[in-house]
Design brief:
about 55 residues; about 45% helix; about 0% strand
């Protein structure tokens, strides 16, 4: 009976650990805003941030 409880506990822990994931959202080019700033030589990364793209229209 103890082995069943241990097995269920291990399965639950594995399921909890497998459900954790980190999401990273880069801009449409796939480059973080700071890296795009370095490539272009701009003074600010604000122009490359996803929330600022609507201001270009």
């Amino acid at each position: 009976m103890k082995s069943i409880h241990k097995f269920i506990a291990v399965v639950c822990v594995v399921m909890l650990m497998a459900s954790c994931s980190a999401n990273y959202h880069a801009n449409k080019n796939g480059i973080p805003p700071g890296q795009a700033k370095k490539i272009t030589g701009a003074q600010s990364a604000k122009d490359y941030a996803p929330g600022q793209q609507k201001n270009k229209n």
